[in-house]
Amino acid sequence: MKRMKPKGPQYFNTPPLRYSITPYSINSSILKNHQFILKQKDNAMSKAFFLEEIQDNIHVLYFDLQGESVNKFNTAVMEELRGITEKLEKRSDIRALLLMSRKPGIFIAGADVAEIKDLKDEAKGYEVARQGQEIFKRFGELPFLTISVIDGACMGGGTEISLACDYRLATDHPKTKIALPEVNLGILPGWGGTSRLPRMIGLQRALDMILTGRNYNAKRAWKNGVVDKVIPHEWALEKALEFAKEVLAGIGEKYLKRRKANDPATIVLEKTPVGRNIIFSQAEKMVLKKTHGHYPAPLKALEVVKKSYGKPLEKAFEIEARALGQLIVTDICKNLVQIFLWTDEIKKENGTAKKELTGTEVRKAGVLGAGVMGGGIAQLFASKEIPVRVKDIDYNVVSKAFQQAAKVLKEKVKRRRLSKLEFQQIMNRITGTVDYSGFKNAQLVVEAIVEDMNIKKKVLAELEQHVDTQTVIATNTSSLRVDEMSQALKHKKRFIGMHFFNPVHRMPLIEVVRGKSTSAEAVATVFNLAKKLGKTPIVVKDGPGFLVNRLLVPYMVEAISLLEEGHTVEAIDKAMLNFGMPMGPIELFDEVGIDVAYKAAKVLQNFMGDRMAESPILERMIEAGRLGKKSGKGFYRYQGKEKTYDPAVDELIDVKHKLLLDEDLMQKRMVYPMINEAARVLEEGVALRPRDVDVGMIFGTGFAPFRGGLLTYADKVGVKNVIDQLKQFEKDFGKRFKPSKALLELADSGFYGKKKKPARKAAPKTKTVKTQKTTQTEKSAKVTKSTKVKESKKSTKTSKETKKVQKEKTSQPAKATKAKSTTKSTKSKQSTEKVKKQSK
User: Fold this and answer.
1) pTM
2) Residues 80 and 48 sit within 8 Å (Cβ to Cβ)
3) Which domains does the chain have, with CATH numbers?
4) How confident is the model at residue 529, as a pLDDT?
5) Is residue 445 a contact partner of residue 365, using CB atoms and an 8 Å limit?
6) Predicted confidence band of residue 835 (pLDDT cuts 50, 70, 90)
7) What is the C-alpha to C-alpha distance for residues 605 and 597, in angstroms, rounded to an integer?
8) N or C: which end of the chain has fewer CB within 10 A?
9) Which helix (H) or strand (E) holds 229?
């Protein structure tokens, strides 16, 4: 007898849906101590899945991918899951199945990202999506109760298979995070997630999860209806069994009712065509505001939800799969996937050539300096359960570190990402002092005092007398030489740069600066600590500005040169926002602090000479007390969260109008010198490989991720084309644009040694517009006109490309072969069938 279709709530004549929970790792001690007897095992030839009967015909399907640190869905695993599902379809003795993980802290990391990178055909992408949808659909339609038990990280495909189950549970473990992060890889949830989630928890809640890719902890997932119950991590298996028995007893309907928001406003919005249009319109505005239209995946995901919501689930799957196929072959997808793979590589490294080296485990830390950076660093250590001691000259100053840490943590409490108890526990790990008491117990001390070489040397020499001989001493300097600083120390091997970026709690990069005397042990210690702190580390050789600032400061100073030539602040910032930067270079001056940026620029100008422009504007700004955001006024004026251009800056610029460039040339003026300097950085060994430059610029400056990084972008444009444009700029604007010998040598190979190169294009010549001195308003009008012409050309080009894509879409790939149907066992219990119907 065929299994009856489950009955359940209908949404816009949509077939009943199945809801599932993602299995997460179960602590081994729990498994050893649980009081149930394992009755049956079916593990023959399995490499990822292990079936065990626990009690009363309730089974657990453990996901434990052999030879891997995480569970992930690759081709082999998906085929194994298909085979296991076919066997389970024939089982009449099973009443309930719990999907769980045996890997600590990990449920399922999602699809194998390396396989996404290899997909280069739209039809193949469509096929992979359809196959995954079919396998998860069959798993969710097994003839017994299915419950996903999420204990640890549940990403992408892990969330999607959970959505296919009848119920979902999540543990209260700190590592339990649930997400659909596909948009961050340039694609969308293509194994049913984009289709199932809106039907399950409602449009508004689902769009927030799908379009942002943000992580939900267990509590937030429960509140939004993604999971049905939060259970204790320590008793995950026992509580999951209790839940299964409760549902089998017929009292699981109460969990189904709370999945969707039921307030009147939400009901009106989501149940009516007009209301849904409002939701979709607001979601689109939110996406465009955040992405500036550079990332097609969120918009495509929104389009899929809009087209498929209310349609039969199978039709929705078809729309979802086609969209995945279109996205997966884009350059943006490949770039974002490559960035993910780079960060995954770094997680497996220790920063040295000695792969077996682990360095010293940092159990306690010290921080010298209680300013903004010192307080931020202390907060980060304490948040990662590392007790930290902060020292400064007096307790009034020390208190500032506590205030800075509390400010960051209170914001998290306000956003409900941290409880008040957790806030207090973190703050209790921070202690203050005006002497060196307690520093003897620290495995690492970070110096974060004023950027003055003489003061730093004096303090470091003093510090060395109060710490253990094995204590690693790190400096957080952003531009001063590590090697020169080390001269103040007797034990130079343990001295290293650990450059955090401001604000510490947000910026994901740490530069691990290796001096001439720095030991591999010290490098491994700081590199592994950076990973523990949740940051992405890159190792760089000591030198002026290290890696990131050496490339970034010339970019910022070139923006000042454009300002002197008559371009407005708004036009310059707008050009780089349109390029994909998180903020414009002029706003970045305000954010960093104009005085801080000026000091860094002076250090680099002494080193780079005529390779970097000079300008009196920054000095004038400092003299006028315009230090940026921290003083309430810089190039912009700040009132609360409001930012407006301040016309008073015009008097400080005080330059005659010389020329105006279109937006494209403005972007190249600022970006191409970074490429030129990056070639030198690699030649000098400041960065070991192009990957480190790209990772450093993306995570240290926010360089447009969709472009793949500075050097990936250079290869895409063509290094020869970059060289030609720099030569033209050299003629028009001076020696600072002269292509370096290192860059010239990369003309044919590119930075990554790819064989296929872009066609060479003639560099556009700069046209000079001679006028008298003009106001910023007049300048803005001229730049706007120039920019509009440029944008018009881009729009025409985009329109042609869109028509081409639409034409290609008409050739639809062949549908994936459906898995052969399996006859359901006639022995399935009626009580289990009844529970199954209710959960749909």
Assistant:
1) 0.84
2) yes
3) 28-336 (3.90.226.10), 365-543 (3.40.50.720), 566-744 (1.10.1040.50)
4) 98
5) yes
6) low
7) 12
8) N
9) strand 229-231
d(CA 115, CA 113): 5
Q: Of the candidates 143, 41, 132, which has an alpha carbon nearest to the alpha carbon of residue 81? A: 132
More confident residue, 252 or 666: 666
Using a pLDDT cut of 70, give the percent of the chain over it.
Answer: 84
Place of tokens 């943006």: 332
Gap between the Cα atoms of 421 and 414, Å rounded: 13
Residue type, 727: K
Q: What is the pLDDT of residues 783-819, one digit of tens each?
A: 344 444 344 444 444 444 444 444 444 444 433 333 3
* Count of Cβ atoms closer than 10 Å to residue 633 Cβ: 20
Which amino acid is it at 691?
Answer: R
Structure tokens at 569: 């602040």
Taking the C-alpha atoms of residue 21 and residue 149, their distance in angstroms, rounded to an integer, is 5
What is the SS3 string spanning 34-99?
Answer: CCCCCCEEECCCCCCEEEEEEECCEEEEEECCCCCCCCCECHHHHHHHHHHHHHHCCCCCCCEEEE
Residues with Cβ within 8 Å of 46's Cβ and at least 6 positions away in sequence, in order, are 80, 84
How buried is residue 617: exposed, middle or buried, by Cβ count under 10 Å (0-12/13-18/19+)? Answer: buried
Q: What is the distance between the alpha carbons of residues 86 and 89, in angstroms, rounded to a whole number?
A: 5
Say which residue, 508 or 26, is predicted with more confidence: 508
Distance in angstroms (rounded) separating the CA atoms of residues 818 and 797: 40
Distance from C-alpha of 155 to C-alpha of 140, rounded to nearest angstrom: 18
User: Which H helix or E strand runs over 497?
Assistant: strand 495-500
SS3 content of the chain, % helix, strand, coil (to 5): 50, 10, 35
Helix 710-717 with 719-733: angle, nearest 10 deg: 90
**Cα(81)–Cα(46) distance, rounded to whole angstroms?**
10
CA 668, CA 196: separation in Å to the nearest integer?
Answer: 44
Judge whether 95 and 144 are in contact, CB under 8 Å: yes
- Distances, alpha carbon 461 to alpha carbons 377, 513, 579, 820, in Å: 22, 19, 46, 74
The one-letter code for the residue type at 57 is: N
Identify the residue whose tokens are 């109060």: 466
User: Catalytic residue positions?
Assistant: 499
Answer for the pair 370, 432: CB distance below 8 angstroms, yes or no: yes
Measure the N-to-C terminal CA separation of the chain; round to a whole number of Å: 20
Q: Could you identify the residue written with the tokens 């992580």?
A: 215
Q: How many CB atoms lie within 10 A of CB 610?
A: 11
